[in-house]
Amino acid sequence: MPAIVILGAQWGDEGKGKATDLLATQHSQSGAGTQIDYVVRTSGGHNAGHTIVVNGEKYATHLLPSGILTPGATSVIANGVVVSPEALFRELDGLLERGVEVADLKVSANAHVIASYHSVVDKVTERFLGKNQIGTTGRGIGPAYSDKVNRLGIRVADIFDEKILSAKVEAALDVRNQLLAKVYNRRAIAVEAVVEELTAYADRLRPMVCDTSLLLNQALDRGETVLFEGAQATMLDVDHGTYPFVTSSNPIAGGVCTGAGIGPTRIDRVIGVIKAYTTRVGSGPFPTELFDEDGEKLQRIGGEIGVSTGRTRRCGWYDTVIARYSARVNGLTEFFLTKLDVLDTWERIPVCVGYEIDGVRHDEMPMTQSEFHRAQPVYEYFDGWGTDISGCRTLAELPANARAYVTALEEMSGAPFWGVGVGPGREQTIVVHDR
Ligand code: GDP
Ligand code: IMO
Ligand code: MG
After folding, report:
1. Which of 31, 110, 290, 363 is 20 to 30 Å from the Cα of 178, by its Cα?
2. What is the pTM of this model?
3. Which among 46, 50, 112, 362 is annotated as catalytic?
């Protein structure tokens, strides 16, 4: 049967990798007919960093779908992704060197390409923005998507025709080089160098390339199971996030349709992954952010360091306004709450239930970004549980206060909780509503 979407409900790093791995293995262990057949990335690029812990071994995926570690499933990089061939093969080789049996991998012919100049432009632009910088990952994501929308992008299929590739690179660099040289005072980039850089990957890439929209729709027609693995998150969505402090794609559920070439009617479940507190990397507003000992403690106990860039993540309390907003814009059928165990040692846990903005109470996301920048959290307080919960496998095993915390969050978040994470390991999960 189904098409299942897993996505980030906050500002990223919620534990999407673990949720994907869990669902993929749960399905593959539950017998015939429920095997996960495809794990698909539909937006973003190697700005993502997903951690998966299997038998105590830690793996990080960036551009590759986390399903690359699931034997028997085909991994797909669909048309909405921006693909750096250099990052793709570096990541694949890294896994192969560790002796990992990697899954079959397909790449859309229509996916846009990130060349090294995109990353150059990303970094130069950030430097130029100074105090207004977004805090991007510097991976060239924004410049690659802007080329795409500007109709100056290079697609994967172009790599296989040197003549077409040269013409497209020339057109793309025409404007970029003017900017680099005249505005940013940088050296112009040579067309031949970019063509050479990209064609070097042609032979290795060719067998992976296909029409992934056709592949996935045919799989769904046959009743196979397709898992769409989100990267980034709702609050980083270019339309629905905290613009301009966002990424340059649509990581919300709607982006899965455009990013994979499937219709919305094909999607059965949309799971929002959400932490039991909140984190954010890079610049931008964050109403429940903590600048005190609690923030430092969340960062330390939660191990809140970026997988891609090694940056310390900003930390704050759980925000039910954001949860309800995510439930709404994604049409979530359920949430997967992660990292509850990180809160084990607090005596009292604040939860943001609404905002006060210019003296007015808001229960829903305010209409404008400038209001969101001024939002002051309104907190309700919950008693902590003071016990290690990492060994709990059912809700009944949780201490009463932890159960009360989970129940309260669920009631205020706008969709039922499917699972609760109590540790980084796949097995350290409480499945609440097994479906
Ligand atoms: P993603 O980008 O959404 O896949 O998340 P990241 O991998 O960037 O960050 C999530 C981090 O939390 C990783 O280090 C995971 O191993 C870890 N993690 C996931 N779920 C849990 C959980 O329930 N408890 C704890 N303690 N760690 C978790
Ligand atoms: P995963 O998939 C957290 C953030 C960057 C920056 C903004 C724009 O691991 O959850 P970009 O390089 O995309 O142009 O940067 O978006 N960002 C992420 N933050 N997790 C991610 O991915 C992110 N991907 C991008 O920090 O603020
Ligand atoms: Mg991450």
Report:
1. 110
2. 0.96
3. 50
Structure tokens given for 279: 């984190």
> Is 119 near ligand 2, meaning CB less than 6 Å away?
no
How confident is the model at residue 30, as a pLDDT? 53
pLDDT band for position 32 (cuts 50, 70, 90) = very low
Ligand at shortest distance from the CA of 251: 2
Alpha-carbon distance 337 to 344, whole Å?
A: 15
Find out whether 295 and 385 touch, Cβ atoms under 8 Å. no
Task: Kindly list the distances between the CA atom of residue 345 and the CA atoms of 257, 348, 387, 389, in Å, as whole numbers in the listed order.
Answer: 41, 9, 7, 10
Closest residue (by CA) to atom 10 of ligand 1? 15
Q: DSSP readout, 242-258? A: STTSS-SS--SHHHHHH
7 within ligand 1 shell (Cβ under 6 A): no
Among the listed residues 203, 217, 202, 198, the one whose alpha carbon sits nearest the alpha carbon of residue 40: 217
Q: How confident is the model at residue 310 (pLDDT cuts 50, 70, 90)?
A: confident
Give me ligand 2 centre to Cα 247, in Å.
Answer: 6
From the alpha carbon of 44, which atom of ligand 2 is closest? 13
Residue 41's alpha-carbon distances to 27, 84, 208, 238, 294, in angstroms, are: 19, 14, 15, 17, 35
50 in active site: yes
Indicate whether residue 230 lines ligand 1 (CB < 6 A).
Answer: no
Query: Token pair of 145, please?
Result: 């998507």
Q: Is the CB of 278 under 6 A from ligand 2?
A: no
Whether residue 121 has pLDDT greater than 90: yes
pLDDT, one tens digit per residue, over 388-419 is 999 999 999 999 999 999 999 999 999 999 99
Task: Quote the pLDDT of residue 150.
Answer: 96
Residue 428 CA: nearest ligand 1 atom is: 23
- State pLDDT tens for residues 239-248: 999 999 999 9
Question: Hey, what amino acid is at 260?
Answer: A
The three-state DSSP-derived secondary structure of 101-112 is CCCCEEEECCCE
Residues ≥6 apart with Cβ < 8 Å to 142: 122, 125, 134, 136, 247, 248
Over range 66-83, report the average pLDDT: 93
CA 284 to ligand 2: nearest atom? 27
Q: Does pLDDT of 33 surpass 60?
A: no
Q: Is the CB of 41 under 6 A from ligand 1?
A: no
